[in-house]
Amino acid sequence: MPEPTKKEENEVPTPAPPPEEWSLGESPAGEEQDKQNANSQVSVLFVEKPQGGTVKVGENITFIAKVKAEDLLRKPTVKWFKGKWMDLASKAGKHLQLKETFERQTRMYTFEMQIIKAKENYAGNYRCEVTYKDKFDTCSFDLEVHESTGTTPSIDIRSAFKRSGEGQEDAGELDFSGLLKRREVKQQEEEPEVDVWELLKNANPSEYEKIAFQYGITDLRGMLKRLKRMRRVEKKSAAFAKILDPAYQVDKGGRVRFVVELADPKLEVKWFKNGQEIRPSTKYIFEHKGCQRIMFINNCQMTDDSEYYVTAGDEKCSTELFVREPPIMVTKQLEDTTAYCGERVELECEVSEDDANVKWFKNGEEIIPGPKSRYRIRVEGKKHILVIEGATKADSAEYSAMTTGGQSSCKLSVDLKPLKILTPLTDQTVNLGKEICLKCEISENITGKWTKNGLPVQESDRLKVVHKGRIHKLVIANALTEDEGDYVFAPDAYSVTLPAKVHVIDPPKIILDGLDADNTVTVIAGSKLRLEIPISGEPPPKAIWSRADKAIMEGSGRIRAESYPDSSTLVIDVAERDDSGVYHINLKNEAGEAHASIKIKVVDLPDPPVAPNVTEVGDDWCIMNWEPPAYDGGSPILGYFIERKKKQSSRWMRLNFDLCKETTFEPKKMIEGVAYEVRIFAVNAIGISKPSMPSKPFVPLAVTSPPTLLAVDSVTDTTVTMKWRPPDQIGAAGLDGYVLEYCFEGKPPKIRIPRHLKQTYIRRVGEAVNLVIPFQGKPRPELTWKKDGADIDKNQINIRNSETDTIIFIRKAERSHSGKYDLQVKVEKFTESASIDIQIVDRPGPPQTVKIEDVWGENVALSWTPPKDDGNAAITGYTIQKADKKSMEWFTVIEHYHRTNATITELVIGNEYYFRVFSENMCGLSEDATMTKESAVIAKDGKIYKNPVYEDFDFSEAPMFTQPLVNTYAIAGYNATLNCSVRGNPKPKITWMKNKVAIVDDPRYRMFSNQGVCTLEIRKPSPYDGGTYCCKAVNDLGTVEIECKLEVKVIYQGVNTPGQPVFLEGQQQLLHNKDF
């Protein structure tokens, strides 16, 4: 890589000129001395300054600056500029690299700027600035870029080698000024130039942008600042007889001539550009003609656009030079284009320069591309292309591309493509509850509208409209009968329609929820049976009833069928015993068939029992038994009623008011010696049977009392003589004789269990239990009680024994007292055992859960699970209640219901209901009920209401600026702040950048972030803190940036100006020494 080289100050040797005048390649001794003095000035921070250099196109060059770090506590800040204010930190990349290193041994900072593959437009003036706290140092240097040796510029050789006349001041030099001057005059005569300075001076501010685009002004703001300075009234000068014009303009690549006339030709003249002295070279040519001092600038480039001034003694005069870009011409015109809707359209033109500024217009209005715009502008060298994504009819218009040298127009016509139906809609027949999918495919990717029976289709949770490319779908989940109809799809912007018919069918169903588990229906003989079975199906099915393969017809017979849209009814006018049996119902429609069997049971009063038998009589009692009736009436026998009467009487008297559930009974309180008869009634759920035939007459007789005064008179080896007296009471039957018995000493034990204890003894919780069990045995037997095989806890159960009986007593029964009690009576080696079952019952607990299984029409299907606690007794049924949500008043719907599911009917449409269920056993209903957690809404118009399902809200969000940065002006020396607000989840990371370079660990900046408000504070900014600031927010979901521009105003004696300071007379040198 070539190192930068200094410009040759003595490029063309010439004879020594007179001391008061000098030309190209030479300078007076005084000027050389001044230059040496300027270069030898003691630098504040620089140890080695970057030197100007030359480079060929396509080669690399490096500029080096060094700063000593012995007296510095931290790294100094170094900035590289091109021209006045172009900060090169934002331009770093493929062709420009900035590098900095630190040598610890020598404590030296080295800063390098490397230009890679130089181009012609890289030539110009550069500046390096170094800042440390209150210290500041700067250095300017030039870069010249020459054409490579392989290229041959097109020049006029004859004019290039033209020499000036002999004996003149510029003799022997290559001088183009004479010819250029004459050509300039000729051009002015033929085609007068437009003075851009005059245009800006006389134009309205609203026309500045238009003028800048037309004449290629790239730095409009700088031009306006310079124009403002030009308007100042120059004071009359003693050194200059004629000063420079306020402004000059020249085309890029042209030549400009600056002329001043001195009042004293002996005054020393120096020319400056942006404060840097200009030295003679092939680019800058100086001439002296009497009192005139002339400077030519050859091959003007954009870097020559600057402020120039000339000094003579202590006075100076300045001017501004505007280098105008050559006009950009349109070399390839736009062409008229025809396209179809939805296609991508590209309008292309070519211009004369690469990367030129081209504006696009639609019907005269400028097209401004953006992130949400369908217009994109693509530049490929000299080609400029306007891209329209997804063209529509609204894009039909006249489009034009405008450059600084002309414009080109074309017409764009966008029409609809001919539509082809690739896949039409088809008629569908769908089962109820299944999915309906209407699908069609057309040749174009366009939207469309769906209608049903002429009305627009509205999307819902159940109905979805899908559009993917050229395919359109209408999907209906869980088809209902109201979904049946004529559907039409109409593509937008076309008059074509695609029709289809949807027919919803439902296989027939037989609903038997209201019947028992075995589908049995019980009817009382002689009554009318109307069995209504709900049915469903679409279209409504046809119902056929049959019994034993014989159809039951509809009509007016005693047994007939009746059909309705939603039910089928079997009617039996007068039920008879022979009507019992299995009946079949068959449903059929085009969707299928359904079958069910129902058992009808006709119940009647039971037959009367046969005449009872009296097996034993006493003085006022007897024991009778009987056989159950031959026919129980189709319902189990619940018990019997017993009546008696005197044989001579006709009035029967009921002996029991509680049903006798056994076939044995003991009538009491009869008159001894009177003949009686008894009869029996059988009872089932239907009622009481006819009485049985009376029993044979019987007479209650008292048994004689035992003989008295029994004594042994004499005893022999084989005989015993005994004596006694007759009984005290003989009774109405008289005394027929005596019976003698004998036994060995002692009596075997025998337990006499009372009849009511031979079955399970049932008591409720809290009631007293007092059981007396008589027994026999001599000598006095030993008694042992056990409960469920374990000894009885006498603290809870009291046992009291006597010689003839034993008593179990429980003051307040509890469920834990239930069980099997075993009694053992022992006399010597003889034992007798008996068992008693005691069951302590209580009210049951409520059902465990109650659910709403389904809601349709005016009906609600419920189901529940049996209670966990049945109260130690079988669950005999359930009681179901309903309550309207508005009033919450409970009403009983069903009582004594045996199944664990039920259908509640005849609910009010539009109301919302809750339901609860009580359990029931022999002790009664449960204390509490279990209520449904959800409510059942009886929707109107047959619509099914489903509670909405709310998903957890996702708070994740990509970063987004809710308040942007705004362009800001700041006053030098006063703190400035930039504010914006951002939101995002997770919380985004904030990074601040200046001119695309991140701000890190710089004490001149402070960054805050509070509740999403981001602040960047710039402490006491200087003009060099101006630039483009960017706030960047990053989280896992994305990245977002926002920019603003900051300009720093400098105030000197009441004059404020953004960026470039304005100085009053006598202050410039002082301020340069202090701050600049």
Automatic annotation (TrEMBL):
The keyword Repeat applies. One of its GO terms (biological process) is sarcomere organization. Residues 326-413, 418-487, 508-601, 749-837, 959-1047 form the Ig-like domain. Keywords: Actin-binding, Cell adhesion, Disulfide bond, Immunoglobulin domain, Muscle protein, Phosphoprotein, Repeat, Thick filament. Pfam families: fn3, I-set, ig, THB. One of its GO terms (molecular function) is actin binding. Residues 608-707, 846-941 form the Fibronectin type-III domain. GO terms for cellular component: M band; myosin filament. Transmembrane segments: none annotated. Residues 1-39 are annotated as: Disordered. InterPro entries: FN3_dom, FN3_sf, Ig-like_dom, Ig-like_dom_sf, Ig-like_fold, Ig_I-set, Ig_sub, Ig_sub2. Residues 1-10 have a biased composition (Basic and acidic residues). Gene3D superfamilies: Immunoglobulins. PANTHER family: MYOSIN-BINDING PROTEIN C, SLOW-TYPE, TITIN. Belongs to the immunoglobulin superfamily. MyBP family. This is Myosin binding protein C1. It comes from Saimiri boliviensis boliviensis (Bolivian squirrel monkey). The lineage of its organism: Eukaryota, Metazoa, Chordata, Craniata, Vertebrata.
